[in-house]
Amino acid sequence: MNARITCPTLATKVVSAEEAVKHIYPGDSVGISGFTGAGYPKAMPAALAARMQAARDRGEEFRVALWSGASTAPDADGVLAAVDGISSRLPYNSDPVLRAEINAGSVDYLDAHLSHSAQHMWFGFYGNLDIAVVEVTAVLPDGLLVPSSSVGNNKTWLDQADKVILEVNHWQPREFEGFHDIYHRTALPPNRLPIPLTEPDQRIGEPYLKVDPAKVVAVVETNAPDRNSAFSPVDEVSRAIAEHLVDFLRHEVKAGRMPAELLPIQSGVGNVANAVLAGLDASEFTGLTAFTEVIQDGMLDLLDSGTLRFASATSFGLSDAGVRRFMDNINAYKGKILLRSEEISNHPELVRRLGVIAMNGMIEADIYGNVNSTHVMGSSVMNGIGGSGDFARNAFLNFFVSPSTAKGGAISSIVPMVSHVDHTEHDVHVVVTEQGLADLRGLSPRRRAERVIEHAAHPKFRDALTEYVARAEAARPTARHTPHLLDESLSWHQRFLDSGQM
Amino acid sequence: MNARITCPTLATKVVSAEEAVKHIYPGDSVGISGFTGAGYPKAMPAALAARMQAARDRGEEFRVALWSGASTAPDADGVLAAVDGISSRLPYNSDPVLRAEINAGSVDYLDAHLSHSAQHMWFGFYGNLDIAVVEVTAVLPDGLLVPSSSVGNNKTWLDQADKVILEVNHWQPREFEGFHDIYHRTALPPNRLPIPLTEPDQRIGEPYLKVDPAKVVAVVETNAPDRNSAFSPVDEVSRAIAEHLVDFLRHEVKAGRMPAELLPIQSGVGNVANAVLAGLDASEFTGLTAFTEVIQDGMLDLLDSGTLRFASATSFGLSDAGVRRFMDNINAYKGKILLRSEEISNHPELVRRLGVIAMNGMIEADIYGNVNSTHVMGSSVMNGIGGSGDFARNAFLNFFVSPSTAKGGAISSIVPMVSHVDHTEHDVHVVVTEQGLADLRGLSPRRRAERVIEHAAHPKFRDALTEYVARAEAARPTARHTPHLLDESLSWHQRFLDSGQM
Fold this sequence. Notes:
acetate CoA-transferase activity (chains A, B), 2 domains, Glutaconate Coenzyme A-transferase, alpha/beta, 8-stranded mixed beta sheet, homodimer
C-alpha cells in the first residue's frame, strides 16, 4: 500500500496514465482540476495528447471539450492544444497555444464569470460531464481526498462527472492536509441556504474533497511540479500605480469610510497586482485579510511580514522561488491560508457581505468608466474575465489598474470607447494608472470623463480625449448624457490596426 | 389627534407643505421616497418647485441633488425638473422633462444598479444626505411608520438623513399595514451577516419603517393618488415574444432543469413584460412565486387566477384600474404580497440563492450577446439600468426581450455591436424577439452570433448581420474569437442618425 493512497478500494485502481486515458473518448466533456498553474493533472494531458495524435495518424478525429477551474499550464492546456485536441474550452484560459487556436476560430471558448461556472454546469447549461480528471495530494483510508495546490471546480467535477480519474501527485506536500475548506452544502434552487461565512478565516466546510469510489475508473500516480510564471521585478510604472492606490486607501481610512485594518482585499494576478501588494507591504497597514482567488508570491510576503494575517483563496499561483519558500515553511503558514472552491472564493453573496476591496488589472478603460479586461482591439481574446466581475460588481470598493500606455506608447489604455466591455459604467469605482487615480464614485458619465482624462490618461493623449468629448457634445446637443461620435468612437483602435499607433 | 398620525410627538409637527420645504436649502441632497409612480411625496415637490421659482425670480440659484428609490411621476421629478431645480439625480429616472435635461447635459445623472444605491449612500460614496422626504400611510402611537405603496430606499434615507419630512397620504389605504417586510439588520462591512431569507414569502423583518423623532422637522398631510401609466393592450408582437418565452420555460421543465412550479420570477416593467405575464397566466403553470421589483397589473391577474401564489417586490406599479382593483380587494391580497426595501428585493445574495428567473426588456442586443438597456444610439439615456443587472447577473436563468425592430422597422434591435453595454456577453442567457428565441447558454461568441441572427433578428436584417460576421472573420484571421470590423461595428447606428434608417 502506497503511503499516499491508503484507501483499499481506490488503491486497487492504480494504473498508468496511458491506461487511464483509455476512459476518455472523442467528443467527451472532460472536467479537469487546475487554477493558474497549480493543481492541474500532470500526467493525463500528455497521455491523452499522444492518444489523440495516434488517432489523427489513423485519420480519426479526437477532440474533447475541456472544462477547468481556470487556466492551467503548458503541460496541460498546451500539450492538448498542440495536437488540436480541444474543441471547446471553459471558463478561462491563458495558454498561448490555445489562445492562438481560439483567436483563429478553431476552438470555441466560453469566457465565463468564475463564480458562475460550477453552478452553470450543475444547472445543465453546459451538457453532460463525461469524465473528471482531478489532481489530489493523497487518498485517505476512507476514500476522502486531500486536495492539492488549487481547488477550483474540483468539488463540482467530482460530484457531477460520470467517471473520475484521480491523479495523486507526490510532488505536492503531504502537509497540505488542513489547508483546505471544502463547502459541501451547495444545492440547486429552490433548496439553497445562506452560506454561513462571515469572516475570511472562517471554516465552513471540511478539509477534504469526496468522490463516489464506484465512479473512479483509474488512479494515476505522478511526481511533477506545478508551473507558474515568475513575476517581473517591480518597475517604476507599477510602483507608481501601487503608490496612488495605497495613498487612496489611506485617504479613505482617514475619511472614516473604512476601518484601519481595511476590509478583505482581493488582488488579481500579474505584475501590477504584485506591485500593489508590495506597496501595501511597505505601508503602515497591518493585520489585513485577503478574500481572493490566488495566493501569489506577494501574498506570502504580506503573510511573512504580518501585514496580512490571513488569506482565503482557491489556488496558489507561486513562482518556483515562491513554491520553495512555501514548502520550506509550510507548517508556519497553516492556519493562515485556506483554499476553497471557486464558487465560494468568488461568491457574490460573500464578496458583498465581507465588503471586499477588489483590485484587478485591465486592458483598457474608456473615459466614461467602462472597462475592457479581455479583448485586444475588440476581437482577439487575451485571457478571460476570470473572477474580476464577481469581485468588482460586489465589492465594497473596486480598482482597475493598468499602465496608461502599452506597446511603447503606441496604445493609450484610456480610450474614447472601449472595444469590448467586461465591466460597465455602472460597476467601476476607481481607475488607476501611473499617471494618477480617477475616483469615479457618485459621478455622472461626463464628470467621469473629466476625471479619467485628467488623472489617468497619459499626457500625450489627454488633449485628443478632451477634444473628442467636446466635439461629441457639440455634435448632438440633445445627446449629451454620454457624448459619443459613433463614427469615431472606435477609430483609435482602428488607427492602431492600420498604422501601429493610436 | 388625526387617525393617521397617532404619535403624540410627531402629531405636533404637522405643518403645510410650504412650511415644510423651508427646511430644504439650495445645494442640499434630498432623498425622497418613490419607486415607479408609487409612494413618492405628493406635496413637497410642488411646494419646493414654487420656492425654487421664487428664488430664481429673485436672481438666486436653487437646485438640489435628488435621490430616490427609482422613478417617480410628473408631480415629483416632473415639477422639479420644470423649474430646473435638479442639479443631479440618482439612481434611476424615467421622467421625460428630466430626461431631456439630462440629455441636454444640464443635469448630472448617476444611473446605478438599484441594489447598490442604498449601500453606496451608506458607504459615503454620494456625500451627506441633508434631508429625507418620505411618504407613509400612517404614523403609529410609538412613532413606527406604516409604509405606503413603495419601499425603495426609504429605510436608508430615514436612517441616514440629517433631517426628515414625513408626508402622510390619506389616499393610501390604511389597510397597507402588514403588506411590508422591512429588514432593519443591514450593516456596514465588516459587520454584515447572512440575510436569512430562503423563500420569497418569508418575513425577515418588521412591517414598519422607523425614524428618530428628533430628526423629523415636519409632517405634512396629503390626499393624492399615485400616478402610473396604463399599459397598452397586448399586441401581436408582444404576444409572440411571450409565447416563445413560455414555450422555452415548458421545455426547460421537461428537460429536468427546473421544477414544475418554476423558480421565482422577476419581471421588468412595460408592455412586453406585461404580455409575458399574460402569457404565463394563459399557460398551464400554476403555484408560481415572484421575487421582483414591481407588482404591475399583470401580477394582480396572476395572483387572482392562482397562477402566482405569492409576490415579493419593493413597489406597486399599477394603472388606475389596477389600483381600484387592488383597493377593492385589499384584504384578499394580504399574505400574498410583501414589499421590501430595494436593497433586499434586488439583493445579489437573495437573487442567486432563490434562483430567480429574470425577464427584462432591452433597447438592443448585439450578435455576440451584449445587451444595451439604457442608451439610444450610444449617447442619450432612456431611463436607466434599474434592477436589470442585479437580477440578470445573479439569476438562475435570464431573458432579455424586445421587438426585433423599432421605429416602424427603421431600427434593428439586433446589431453588430451595441452602442452601449449594460449587460455583457458573460451575463446574457436568452434573447427573445417576436422572431424567436436565441438560447446563448454555453456558447462561444461566434456560435452566439449564428443563433441570435437565425432566431432573434428580423429577416430583413439577417443577411447584413451574417455578412458582417463573415467579412469580420475574413479581415482578421487571427482575431476571430469575437470578429468585429471596428470601422463598421457602429455604422448601423450612425446610418440611422444620418438617414433615419439602419
